[in-house]
Each structure stands twice: as structure tokens, then as C-alpha cells.
Amino acid sequence: MNLRESFQYMNFLDTNISKVNMMLYDESNLVTVEQEHLKKVANPNAENEKIVKPKDLRCSPMDLINFLDELMEEKEKVSKAIYEAKSKTEVNLDHAVSINKAKQKQLNTLKRLVVLKPSESEGFDYDYMINNEGNQVQYKYKVKQVKTIDYDRNKVRTKYRALSKECEEMSTLIDKIQINTEVDCEPKWRISDTLDDMLGIDLDEK
């Protein structure tokens, strides 16, 4: 698999690790509940009854505990293979991705500055005055507002175009590296596999 596929596979492993951890946090998956209904004490004509509450889980807790070990071993194996593959790329991939993300945010800021335009508008406001009778009264008056841009939009536009080209080129290089760099690791599962498939047990069957 290539680097991009290995990243997808790592996300797949992380998702399933989280699922299994959640299942092992759920007490209903870890204990067997037996109830003894002492009906005869309250009703001499009734019979006492023992009930084992059914569990949704179709595998044992130890199956999950051992499977979590498998998932973690696979994650460690893939992580090591990804690290080794990255060490052979033409640029430091983690650094390139991190810086490109930061520049994309900068690009969004510059885009906002480029599209901002000066404007004029009219509205109304209120104030108070003393009328001829000596009373304080409110009056309404017109307000003309002018917004001017306090920076050189042409210079910002030039910066935006240059940074946009730089980000596109880096994104293309990152994509190329992720697609063309092979990771020396054979995945144990397919990312289309469900947790049921991976365990070989139907966890949802009642």
C-alpha cells in the first residue's frame, strides 16, 4: 500500500481501537447477571425462578481483550512502516503538511482582505435636545457613513496570488509523495471490514 492508503488504514485501526475500548468500558459486556426471583415467599402458589439476563455481546470479554492486543500490535507495525517510508521521501512530509495547512489559513485571511471593499451607506441615529418649552426631547437625524480600506489591496492581491500558487504546488507535491511512496507493510485487515468481520463473530446477533 502507498502512504495515503496507510494513513487511511491507520484511521481504520484507530476507529476500531476506540470501539473495542468502549465495549470494554461497558459493564454489561463484562459481567453475567443472575437473578433469583423469590416469588414463593410472597405467593405460596408461585414458584421461585432463576433468570440469567441475556447479553448483547456474542463473544467473551477475553476475546475483546485479546483482540485489542492484536489491534495495537497492528497499529505499531503500520506506524513503524509509515515512519520508515517517510524517512525516504524528498521532503519532510509531516513538516510540509503542517506548514501548508498554516499557509492555507493565511490564504483565507488574505482572500478576505482582497474582497473587502470601501463603501458608503446612510442610516439614522438619535440624540436629545431641549425644546422651546425647556423639556428634553429625543430627535432623529441622518448619519452618512464612509468606510475606507486602510491597506493596499493591490499588494495584498499580489501576495494572495503568490501564496495560492505556492500552496497549490506544495499540495500537488504532497499528493504525489503520498501516492508514489510505498509502505513496506501488509495490512492484516481491509478497511471495508466490520468489527464483526475482524473478530469472526456476529456481535449484533441477539
Compact summary:
By secondary structure, the chain is of the alpha+beta class. Helix content is 53%, strand content 16%. It has helices spanning 3-25, 39-42, 61-86, 93-115, 153-180, 195-199; strands spanning 34-37, 49-52, 119-130, 136-147.
| Poorly predicted runs of 5 or more residues | none
Shape category: flat
**Straight-line N-to-C gap:** 37 Å
Q: Over all CA atoms, what is the radius of gyration?
A: 33 Å
Query: Strand order within the widest sheet?
Result: 1-2
Strand content: 15-25%
* Secondary structure: number of strands: 4
Which range best describes the helical content: under 10%, 10-25%, 25-40%, 40-55%, 55-70% or over 70%? 40-55%
Largest sheet report: 2 strands, antiparallel
Order of helices and strands: HEHEHHEEHH
Structure description:
The protein has 206 residues and is α+β, with helices and mostly antiparallel strands. The protein contains 6 helices and 4 strands. Strands 1-2 form a two-stranded antiparallel sheet. A two-stranded antiparallel ribbon has the order 3-4. A hairpin with a 5-residue loop joins strand 3 and strand 4. The longest helix is centred in the last third of the chain and has 28 residues. It is flat and about 100 Å long.
Secondary structure blueprint with pairings:
Layout: H1 3-25, E1 34-37, H2 39-42, E2 49-52, H3 61-86, H4 93-115, E3 119-130, E4 136-147, H5 153-180, H6 195-199
Antiparallel strand pairs: 1-2, 3-4
Helix pairs in contact: 1-3, 4-5
